[in-house]
Amino acid sequence: MLRSLSILVFALAFVSRVFGAESANLEALVKSGEQETRYKQAKLDEAESLFNQALELRLKSQARDPAAVAETLSGLSRLMRSRAKFDQAESLQNEALQIREKALGPDALEVAESLDGLGQIFLSQNRAADAEKPLERALAIREKASGKESPETADSLFSLGELRRQQGRVDEAVSLQERALAIREKALGPEHPDVAQSLMALARLKANPRDLQDRESMVRRALQIRRKTFGAEHPTTAESDQTLASIGLQELALSRAGAVKIDADAKTKEIETDLDEALKGFKSAYGDNHPAVANVLNTLASLRMEQGDVAKAQEAASQALRIIESAVGKGQASSIDILDNLARIEAAQRKYDEAVAHAKEAADTCEARLGAGHPQMQAVLTTYAEILEKAGRQKEAAEVRKRLEQARLQEALQSGNPK
């Protein structure tokens, strides 16, 4: 273990220069939990330095405390996950889990924390199958150790709700997130950041246009909590800003279809402001080349399409794809929406060869990563078939339409509602 950990440990002198403190002062910072404070503030460089310093101090301590070492490893893992460094995050959390199971026993709450952390890492990569066992085990431990109405149990309910969402099991996801929200509001108060997290999770599950007002209300409440707690340039605040922009885009589309009446110019300006705020928040915390930045650019591309500026739409979507592939590699689930959007933008310019290639890549990636019965499969196959038809490739389009019908049937079977 020590050999692998040594790669992660920063030099004492470096950390001392960062914080202008002697070793004793740094040790006091570590013991006070300053590394967690910096992490929650999204001061990730400072947090990483302190986490590594904490790790070095705890490994060198004559009275080495395995639980304290594991706590630091788990904290570092969460930080690496936020930076989309998923391999490092998984390795660190696995080490923390092994130490905790040995030192504290398999049913300790700290073990549940590491299991939930592993599940979150897998969910960040859309690895739902890998996430299920650790998340279910974490919930069982927490319900037994702290009770079914505890904040720890709510954390597990939230994580399982995210898992069910990724699996396309929306009704189960809603039930889990509503339980998590109710517990958090009662145990932590209505203005707690965890309440905002639950509100955002529920908003993601309200995809029906009829739920648009409820969804917007939830996101605005979450945004208010996050701005008050963390400030405007924080990644969680940025997430809420971006979601508001996405809701605004839906409202513009409904307005164009005559379903609702809004001031399109005012709504467009509002969306642009939300996206600017989101970009500032994500870039401030993560830098320019993070998946969260790519997702904002993809939303911006959709806005440019609404405005009829196809060239700028392609520029934004292409940049988003470059960032996401640089950050997590090609063929990952996080690229599906971007590929699908880029394909539609290219088709609007009659760039059919490029559009077909990107639509096919989106469909193949979705099937490989999420499964043929996932709800998103139907959306990307619809785009793929429509582009092939516009390109005059009717025979290929018919084959894709067959895949689309199979995807619909498979989703119905998986949901227990065959048609």
What's the CATH superfamily of the domain at 1-105, by name? Tetratricopeptide repeat domain
Report the CATH C-level class of the domain at 1-105.
Mainly Alpha
What would the average pLDDT be, to the nearest integer? 91
Tally the helices: what do you get? 21
Q: Give the class from helix and strand content and strand pairing.
A: mainly alpha
Give the proportion of residues in helices. Answer: over 70%
Could you tell me the radius of gyration in angstroms? 23 Å
DSSP summary, beta strand count: 0
Largest sheet: none
Summarize the structure.
It is built from 21 helices and no strands. The chain has helices spanning about 1-5, 10-20, 25-30, 35-40, 45-60, 65-80, 85-105, 110-125, 130-145, 150-165, 170-190, 195-205, 210-230, 235-255, 265-285, 290-305, 310-330, 335-350, 350-370, 375-390, 395-415.
Describe the structure.
The protein is built from 21 helices and no strands. It is mostly helical and 419 residues long. Among the domains are: 105 residues, Tetratricopeptide repeat domain (Serine Threonine Protein Phosphatase 5, Tetratricopeptide repeat, Alpha Horseshoe), CATH 1.25.40.10; 98 residues; 70 residues. α19 runs antiparallel to α20.
